[in-house]
């Protein structure tokens, strides 16, 4: 949980650097303001807390009633006064952390279902929160970058993304070459005879794969390809 908590502090610091008026400016996510991002991160903590409650009680408690309800909740949250939006983020993070703290180890293996319909052990909520806070700190678009993320977060994030591509068959003839990494060095379709090769440092490759940036990315093709859809 340490990296999730570090990410929570990091997101909170980037949020605190924004004035109330700046929350209405666009984020890096198309169609979302910074307020939308903050609302999403806040409500995400509440949704994950529901999964932890599910594991503890055995009573099915979905993250959201529906995908539409999730989107409507975020849209509503983005209209909150800035002070209420900041409180939503802080209070929901504290609530989720308390849920984790009070959950016995044996409950962590209980299966719950994500908003995308994946069945995972409840302990997976820690990673789900970790990637949310680190990535969306970047989406606030006020100075955070993937280079701020710990290497283990970037490596697991890339494994998640390329795993999703592989499951859908979207990685055919696409190979990622990671420069200067002590961990992951090659991902994607490593058996392809004539692959499209995308090269960059671990932070730059992760940012490209997550659809956030092409900074620092090179390719063996004339134009840098667009990353396949992640989620």
Give the distance, in angstroms, between the N- and C-terminal Cα atoms.
Answer: 23 Å
Helix content: 40-55%
CATH level-four homologous superfamily name of the largest domain: dinb family like domain
Question: What overall form do the CA principal axes indicate?
Answer: globular
Q: C-alpha Rg, in Å? A: 18 Å
For the sheet with most strands, the description reads:
4 strands, mixed
- pLDDT under 50 segments (min length 5)? none
H and E order: HHHHEEHHEEEHE
Query: How many E-type strands?
Result: 6
CATH secondary-structure class of the largest domain = Mainly Alpha
Number of helices: 7
| CATH fold node name of the largest domain | Four Helix Bundle (Hemerythrin (Met), subunit A)
Tell me, rounded to a whole number, the average pLDDT.
94
Task: Supply the number of structural domains.
Answer: 2
